[in-house]
Amino acid sequence: MEAFTQKLAAIRQDVLRFAKIQLRDEYLAEDIVQDTLAAAIAKHSQFRGDAGLKTWVLSILKNKIADYFRSHKYTVSLESLQEENDAIERHYDHCFDENGHWQLADSPQNWQPAPEEAVARQDFFRALENCMQGLPQDTARIFYLREVMGWDVEEICREFAISKDNCYVILHRARNGLRRCLQHRWFDLAEEEGAGK
Description:
It holds the Pfam family Sigma70_r4_2. Keywords: DNA-binding, Sigma factor, Transcription, Transcription regulation. Belongs to the sigma-70 factor family. ECF subfamily. It comes from Neisseria dentiae. The protein is mainly alpha-helical. It folds into 2 domains: 2-71, Rna Polymerase Sigma Factor, Chain: A (Orthogonal Bundle); 78-196, Arc Repressor Mutant, subunit A, CATH 1.10.10. The chain is 73% helix and 0% strand. The protein contains 9 helices and no strands. It is elongated and about 60 Å long. The protein starts with a helix and ends with a helix.
């Protein structure tokens, strides 16, 4: 048991960083990570080692965060999101034609290195985490619940008291914001580094 506890201590900072990004509240993140680690210790006999320890602990954390969101109803004010999201929209107004299709010059480019290779690198995850922090708080929460936690749009709409149309707009803006940020912070830098070699 002592060896297991030491392994948990070794991954605590990574788990805490993940929680802080999702919750945007340092003290709440600390509390939920403590609950998560306590649950991992209580369930240590269930850990079979099929997945890595960090993956297993993060799955417990994701459930704890989902439980937190379910127990705290959020109401999203679209007006409060509008100002922050307008900046994202301004970057993309010129990217689409009158039918909503990408302009050829502005369409998503093939990212180098390939996404499969980039995902395997820890630096990519740090860039993604930084980009998530740049999104408006409710936009990041809704994106996280949909794309990471796999919640249905209907479930998100109930939790945040928004319409499906509003949810899809928020998700669209989140994806565009993350795409732009990752293009700048990760993929463009990777290309520059590759060209410098």
